[in-house]
UniProtKB/TrEMBL annotation, chains A, B:
Residues 11-71 form the HTH tetR-type domain. This is TetR/AcrR family transcriptional regulator. Keywords: DNA-binding, Transcription, Transcription regulation. SUPFAM superfamilies: Homeodomain-like. It comes from the Bacteria. InterPro entries: Homeodomain-like_sf, HTH-type_TetR-like_transc_reg, HTH_TetR.
Length: 213, 213
DNA sequence: GTCTATACCGAGATAGAC
DNA sequence: GTCTATCTCGGTATAGAC
């Protein structure tokens, strides 16, 4: 359990509220969680919450802000290392996989936001949460592929996101799908597979050129 | 707008209710849609719904059943053609992409179910909805890859699912991510890219052997 | 900053007439 | 098979004491 909103510049009680609310919202969703539920988790009564947040929506916004800012900070760390591009991609995927698989709160909230597909929130998510990682990922990918070909880096980036998110969201369904083995519970193994699929997709046989810039 | 529950063996009014409910549930989710909302969409009053379904949960179950059965039937058609394995994979991905991108109701309900991650429902989804397509996909993939290597077919299958689902769920966020172009709104183009990524992932350099059977 | 008490609303569901 | 009327519950949010 991580990234449950250690956002700074919030007073300690507000911080605790956001932390608890994040866990509950992630788990059961906005509608199923009542202000009473959140209050109970914080050992206070519901009306006290309104001293810290004007209403339920504001609290939810604060939760998203906190969780995604936290995630953003942690993911950024992945990119600082100095290695060959391919090994860098490998590490980025491995560490992102560990992060996303272990951080249930972040993953669920992200999945929920993608469900809504609200334009404003998508812009916020993309620009404030994803953009940094995506740009650095783009750079790595362009270093890996042969100079002569230009594969679709936007497609590659979103595929990395998609594979990471989907494989770790699959959870309880995985065991019922064909060919499932104990192996597939192993985060590092899945990360390895994702790395190879992205790498081969980028390196081999791009279907067509694209004016990437 | 498709697959909105043309389930047979339901009386016509019940069928209409399921159809409308599917659209509403997919769009706004179980909790946000009231029985009154559904009734209004059917031009009846809320209590009349209880003549056809014992409660809200039962109606939701009927919706899932109808939408997923429909989807299952449509996807199954994709596999009947006779072609070389690689071309077959190509077609399967292309047609699945068109289906999943156009069927907003199915995609949203599936995404919502994956959010809950309830073991029983995951088993239902996997076995009743996914299993057929997955097994046939598995067969195709095994025909494509060189006999000498055994790649992880479970990983490949779930990656196909993940890429298809994610890329078409991305919707409004896509335009805010690096490198987005008008191209990426084109279903067939994305399908092409997914096909190539899966193909190269399966054909080239499997990271390690696996006892697949 | 937290509480009790409460207003207000809309939800799911049922009874019983037609 | 559909309706009107109604019950009951739990939700968000506010007022005002401490």
């Amino acid at each position: 359990m991580n990234s449950s909103g250690n956002s700074t510049q919030l007073k300690p009680t507000a911080r605790r509220i956001v932390e608890q609310a994040a866990r509950l919202f992630a788990d059961q969703g906005y509608d199923l969680i009542s202000m009473r539920d959140i209050a109970k988790a914080c050992d206070i009564k519901a009306p006290s919450l309104y001293h810290h947040f004007s209403d339920k929506q504001s609290l939810y916004q604060a939760v998203l802000q906190a969780v995604f800012a936290q995630q953003n900070a942690e993911i950024a760390e992945v990119f600082v290392t100095q290695m060959a591009a391919e090994e860098k991609l490998h590490q980025v995927i491995l560490l992102s996989a560990r992060k996303i698989s272990s951080d249930h709160v972040f993953r669920q909230l992200l999945w929920r936001e993608l469900l809504q597909n609200d334009p404003e929130r998508m812009q916020f998510l993309a620009e404030e949460v994803m953009a940094q990682s995506c740009l650095q990922l783009q750079e790595i990918l362009q270093q890996i592929q042969p100079n002569s070909l230009q594969t679709d880096s936007h497609f590659a980036i979103t595929s990395v996101m998609g594979l990471l998110l989907f494989h770790f969201q699959l959870g309880a369904m995985r065991q019922y799908l064909p060919g499932a083995q104990a192996l597939h519970q192993d985060v590092d193994y899945l990360a390895e597979q994702i790395f190879h699929m992205i790498k081969s997709g980028v390196v081999y046989a791009p279907p067509q050129r694209i004016n990437d810039k």
